[in-house]
Amino acid sequence: MPKIKDEKKYVDIQMGKFQLFFNKKYRFISLANDLSLGLWFLIGSILFLFKHTQTIGTIFFILGSAQLLGRPVLKIIHAFYLKKGSS
């Protein structure tokens, strides 16, 4: 079972003799988003090759296209944050 250590600026996941470091949750979410986005389009492309699965392939393309909107939203959330001002 992987050990997850959540530090202030990064997440450390230890799996046996290997360790994965992610710069907090937005970086990991962004990578997971990109990976699943690629899978939607790859699966959609394969399904689109055959006449009887073209509709399902089109649905995968639509899911991937909708998920493309998540990339800039994640970057905006990661880049900006609200902080209470001292007045």
UniProtKB/TrEMBL annotation:
Keywords: Membrane, Transmembrane, Transmembrane helix. The chain crosses the membrane at residues 28-50, 56-74. Residues 25-78 form the YrhK domain. Pfam families: YrhK (PF14145). InterPro entries: YrhK_domain. This is YrhK-like protein. It comes from Sediminibacillus albus.
